[in-house]
Amino acid sequence: MKSITITGSQRESVGKKATKALRNAGMVPCVVYGGKQPLHFSAPELAFKDLVYTPNAHTVVIDLENGEKVNAVIQDIQFHPVSDRIIHVDFYQLFDDKAVTMDIPVRLVGNSPGVRNGGRLLFRKRKLTIKALPAKLPDFFDIDINKLKIGGNIAVSSLLNDEFSILHPENTVVVQVKSSRNVVAADDDEEEEGEATEAAAE
């Protein structure tokens, strides 16, 4: 999984006055959990644009001014209710031997014959929650829909992998094609019907 580096300054004071001063200066107060004790730091608000405003999943390298580097993932982001600016970010520290839980985006690959024949594609799960060691975290799930016909679906059960655990029931539908009023017969269905008619005539 790709990592994004955020350069930050470690801070000792976490009071309301200090936090307000940081925000007024365009900085975002942050905290990293998961280590021996919480690590408080701040980073420029602009540093989060490629991390927050994207459908992709990333890990983060927090590069502190004292030379310390911490690998982490975002756990929670707080936005201002009016301006929608980032006002606080919680991170969780990563360790090579400790599994972490993350939401991984799903991408659909190909063209569904069911959709070409008038069916409706329903993308039920655009992200899947998984648990894995940091080195085993995928960037995304690619789901091939080239054989997805009307009435068909692709569920979590077909995505299971020894490298990570998917934290959804195996029968959870990720994508499906439902019938609609504009459905036409698929080519292979028409061929099967034609063969059946010829057999009956004989």
- Please tell me what the overall shape is: elongated
Q: Please compute the radius of gyration using only Cα atoms.
A: 24 Å
Strand order of the largest sheet: 1-3-2-6-5-4
**What share of the residues does DSSP label as strand, in percent?**
35-45%
Mean pLDDT: 86
Distance between the termini: 60 Å
Structural class: alpha+beta
Q: Compute the number of helices.
A: 4
Could you give a short account of the major beta sheet? 6 strands, mixed, barrel
Quaternary structure of the protein: single chain
Helix coverage percent of residues?
A: 10-25%
Give the helices and strands, then pairings.
Elements: E1 3-10, H1 16-24, E2 27-33, E3 39-44, H2 49-52, E4 59-64, E5 69-79, E6 86-93, E7 100-109, H3 113-116, E8 120-123, E9 127-132, E10 141-144, E11 153-155, E12 165-166, E13 173-178, H4 187-201
What does this molecule look like?
The chain has 202 residues and is of the alpha+beta class. It contains four helices and 13 strands.
